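Researcher: We plan to redesign the surface later, but first we want a full-length starting point. Tokens attached.
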């Protein structure tokens, strides 16, 4: 997945950016279902007992279970007997990458992995970070622009990675809608709820609308869009 770290503060250093990337490599090595030697892969093959799970693995799996309860079972990391916490880990990693930069002292930056972003402070021009939402039907087309500061944004859909999100209620791939973008207080929260909302299908936008501090933009298969009541505060022309 493409990764971007952009620090707008004048005292930005390569060392700070490298520290974030090192953390991402650590997370990938632990949670990637594509790496045969990752901790999650060892667990899925039954080669690592629960007594030997790392503290971070236990934390992530606890957060996944918490999210499952909060989303009425639509967020479920158990897919045909395989545990895949990717729907939470990406946002978690971005959020913690941003925390690394905050701890160093940076105030104006954004951290992105494959379109999911934590935007802090302002860009080099002193304005809110400008984020485009891609069309699920034409990846070269931006269909909506939002302006963010101190917020997280995450998109769930099938147009980049295929049908990788399950609807646990029917035990098959979720594909009722084309995509949904969620803006929240941070990217970790936005990411986990975007995954669940996509699995919910068309009623997912209502779920997001009912969450305090969250807004969403859903694109249906007929190429029409539905947004939550407060999404307009972030759109182009209101920055």
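Model: Full-length starting sequence:
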């Amino acid at each position: 997945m493409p990764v971007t770290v952009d620090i707008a503060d004048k005292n930005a250093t390569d060392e700070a950016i490298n520290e974030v990337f090192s953390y991402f490599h650590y997370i990938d090595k632990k949670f990637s279902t594509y790496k045969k030697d990752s901790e999650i892969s060892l667990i899925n093959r039954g080669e690592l007992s629960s007594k030997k799970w790392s503290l971070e693995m236990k934390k992530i799996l606890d957060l996944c279970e918490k999210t499952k309860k909060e989303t009425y079972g639509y967020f479920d990391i158990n897919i045909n007997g395989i545990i895949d916490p990717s729907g939470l880990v990406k946002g978690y990693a971005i959020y913690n990458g941003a925390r690394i930069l905050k701890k160093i002292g940076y105030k104006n930056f954004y951290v992105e992995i494959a379109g999911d972003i934590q935007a802090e402070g302002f860009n080099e021009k002193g304005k809110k970070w400008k984020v485009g939402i891609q069309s699920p039907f034409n990846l070269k087309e931006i269909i909506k622009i939002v302006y963010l500061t101190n917020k997280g944004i995450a998109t769930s859909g099938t147009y980049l990675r295929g049908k990788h999100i399950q609807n646990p209620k029917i035990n098959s791939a979720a594909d009722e809608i084309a995509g949904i973008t969620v803006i929240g207080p941070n990217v970790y929260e936005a990411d986990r709820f975007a995954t669940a909302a996509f699995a919910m299908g068309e009623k997912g936008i209502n779920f997001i609308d009912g969450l305090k501090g969250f807004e969403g933009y859903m694109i249906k298969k007929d190429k029409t869009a539905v947004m939550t009541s407060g999404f307009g505060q972030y759109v182009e022309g209101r920055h």
